């Protein structure tokens, strides 16, 4: 379960192992250790609660990057993306519990099943999407048994059979499970296992509808998950400058894709990307300040919608999602380090001040 009280607000940043984004081409080694450590420290200094260490085929190992981040910081939580199915769940559970002990209880797992058959094939995984989600459910069953069982346990599933499984190392406290996915198979797993369900930056109507479906899936299991929203704030001193910056980021993204010889983005296989593209098809500026043009340009490959405006305006837009039930905000910029510093200096304080004034609670501030 989550370590946080139900209504506590949590901010999560993003750990890029080098300077790269949709609008900045990667250069040099895939791991820039100094950049990674500085980026992590900027999040800690800026008041973030956690930092996401992502997983995708061909990327540096997320668990080892998280260990480096843990060594470079003192209190920053680690949200470690882990593609279930590639490591035996008993082994992965011991890895996560070991790192949790070494970092003083800072570890969380973002369990990902994979939404693109082509990317999964790069690591030799050829299961169907529904099969991957079913495997994830078994993986999390076994991981939680490893973290909690006081005696050896057996488990017999379709994908895993464990006889006498046991872990000597236990986490400091229950490791929170973050989970996303909007297909029926994904929602079934979310209902059973998600402590925090992760949405991408969708419209208010889409977020309201999906939160309702997740709550309905969790209710039969007696569970009440938290909800996270992933979005890319684009800030400036004035609204006009913020929108100009957003258009400049879009132009750089287009130019970079053209330089790589990339044509129109392929049709996405995962439901989350399809939902973002469905929103983008209705307009580039939705609700108060949701900007969808970069998502449309990139085929919504990941978290790619933005909230555009001054820090106070974007804080107000985040409060709209808070009113829908979102309590965790996963935010990252198109200029990762510079934006993380700016978020810590302006956006997080603006949000907390506005929440405190609207709710009248000192805790929010």
What does this 3D model show about the protein?
It comes from Methylobacterium durans. One of its GO terms (biological process) is alkanesulfonate catabolic process. This is Alkanesulfonate monooxygenase. Pfam families: Bac_luciferase. The protein is of the alpha/beta class and 365 residues long. The protein has a single domain, classed as Alpha-Beta Barrel (TIM Barrel), CATH 3.20.20.30. The chain has 12 helices and 13 strands. The chain has helices at residues 33-46, 62-72, 89-102, 117-122, 129-148, 184-193, 204-218, 239-259, 271-280, 293-298, 311-323, 336-359, and strands at 10-14, 50-53, 77-83, 107-112, 153-156, 161-165, 177-180, 196-200, 226-235, 285-286, 290-291, 306-309, 328-331. An 8-stranded parallel barrel has the order 1-2-3-4-7-8-9-13, surrounded by 8 helices. Strands 5-6 form a two-stranded antiparallel sheet. Strand 5 (153-156) and strand 6 form a beta hairpin. The two termini are 24 Å apart. The model has no long low-confidence stretch (mean pLDDT 94).
Fold blueprint:
Blueprint: E1 10-14, H1 33-46, E2 50-53, H2 62-72, E3 77-83, H3 89-102, E4 107-112, H4 117-122, H5 129-148, E5 153-156, E6 161-165, E7 177-180, H6 184-193, E8 196-200, H7 204-218, E9 226-235, H8 239-259, H9 271-280, E10 285-286, E11 290-291, H10 293-298, E12 306-309, H11 311-323, E13 328-331, H12 336-359
Parallel strand pairs: 1-2, 1-13, 2-3, 3-4, 4-7, 7-8, 8-9, 9-12, 9-13
Antiparallel strand pairs: 5-6, 10-11, 11-12
């Amino acid at each position: 379960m989550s370590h946080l009280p139900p209504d506590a607000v949590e901010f999560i940043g993003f750990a890029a192992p080098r300077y790269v984004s949709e609008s900045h081409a990667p250069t040099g080694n895939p791991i820039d250790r100094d950049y990674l450590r500085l980026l992590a420290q900027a999040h800690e200094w800026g008041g973030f609660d956690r930092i996401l260490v992502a997983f995708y085929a061909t990327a540096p190992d997320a668990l080892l990057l998280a260990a480096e981040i843990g060594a470079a910081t003192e209190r920053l939580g680690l949200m470690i993306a882990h593609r279930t199915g590639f490591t035996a769940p008993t082994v992965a559970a011991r890895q996560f519990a070991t790192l949790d002990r070494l970092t003083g209880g800072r570890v969380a797992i973002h369990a990902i099943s994979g939404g693109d058959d082509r990317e999964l094939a790069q690591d030799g995984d050829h299961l169907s999407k529904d099969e991957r989600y079913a495997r994830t459910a078994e993986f999390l069953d076994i991981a939680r048994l490893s973290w909690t069982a006081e005696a050896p346990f057996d488990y017999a599933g379709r994908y895993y059979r464990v006889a006498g499984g046991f872990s000597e190392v236990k986490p400091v406290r229950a490791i929170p499970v973050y989970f996303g996915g909007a297909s029926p198979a994904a929602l079934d797993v979310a209902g059973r296992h998600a402590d925090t369900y992760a949405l991408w930056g969708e419209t208010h109507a889409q977020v309201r509808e999906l939160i309702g479906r997740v709550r309905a899936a969790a209710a039969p299991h007696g569970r009440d998950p938290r909800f996270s929203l992933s979005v890319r704030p684009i800030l400036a001193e004035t609204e006009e400058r913020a929108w100009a910056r957003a258009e400049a980021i879009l132009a750089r993204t287009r130019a970079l894709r053209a330089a790589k010889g990339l044509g129109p983005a392929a049709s996405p296989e995962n439901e989350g990307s399809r939902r973002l593209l469905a929103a983008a098809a209705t307009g580039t500026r939705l609700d108060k300040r949701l900007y969808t043009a970069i998502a449309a340009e990139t085929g919504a490959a990941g978290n790619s919608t933005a909230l555009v405006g001054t820090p106070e305006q974007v804080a107000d837009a985040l409060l709209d999602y808070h009113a829908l039930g979102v309590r965790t905000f996963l935010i990252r910029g198109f200029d990762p380090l510079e934006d993380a510093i700016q978020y810590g200096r302006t956006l997080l304080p603006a949000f907390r001040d506005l929440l405190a004034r609207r709710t009248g609670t000192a805790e929010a501030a």
